[in-house]
Amino acid sequence: MIRKIIHIDEDKCNGCGLCAEACHEGAIGMVNGKAKLLRDDYCDGLGDCLPGCPTNAISFIEREAAAYDRKAVEANMKKKEEQKNLGKKAPAFTGCPGTRMRMMNHKETQTEEISSAKPTSMLGQWPVQIKLVPIHAPYFQNANLLIAADCTAYAYANFHQEFIKHKITLIGCPKLDDVDYSEKLTEIIAQNDIKSVTIVRMEVPCCGGLENAAKQAIQNSGKFLPWQVVTISIDGKILEA
């Protein structure tokens, strides 16, 4: 039968594996570092995998394909659940290790131990680059969002404790990436339960692009969120807050 089904452009695919994680039916898998549509009858054509692709390698096409088989999908998911309950490991992640989504839990450092304790990372998730982070991720729910310029963490010494702690971190540099982040940031804010947005930028003019993209995203999302902009000087001081 002719029907709508996803198509994966291997030339654009960077092997991040986000589409495979987003596909609830198990239709997509990673083969030799590239995303593959494993079975036509597992693909329902709804496109849950599309928003998470950072390289726009996935699209819809109409072609001859087997009909979506809900029973086969349910049987496959049941088998995976049984394997999980038996303690068997799921297939190893074969995408790019640097883009695999992760959540981290850090123990709170007791106040009396701060003076002697080694600095602890406060990063709560991975990846952090705006271009790589998926639009839908569990860590976005009830999240305080930090949108920061790449250089800020290098310039400001206490960046983890004062800015990253208890926030979900997104970083980017519009000058180096030469992209407009506003569209993706809009989708992240609009499609998730974001509680607040903190924008941290450097004093250099090129950082204005990140600030403008974040402000535009908040406006375009249609939500009324508390937000603030913090500017860091080149010598590591807070200029505006």
Task: Please describe the structure with a list of short key phrases separated by commas or semicolons.
two-stranded antiparallel ribbon, elongated, 241 residues, alpha/beta, 11 strands, 7 helices, 24% helix, five-stranded mixed β-sheet
Please provide a brief summary of the model.
The protein has 241 residues and is α/β, with parallel strands linked by helices.
- What gyration radius follows from the Cα positions, in whole Å? 21 Å
Largest sheet: 5 strands, mixed
What global shape is seen? elongated
Total helical elements:
7
Secondary-structure element sequence? Answer: EHEEEHEEEHHEHHEHEE
Helix-strand category: alpha/beta
Q: What level of helicity do the residues show? A: 10-25%
Unreliable segments of 5+ consecutive residues: 111-115
Please state how the strands of the largest beta sheet are arranged side by side.
8-7-9-10-11
Mean pLDDT: 85
* Distance N to C terminus: 59 Å
Beta percentage is 15-25%
Number of strands: 11
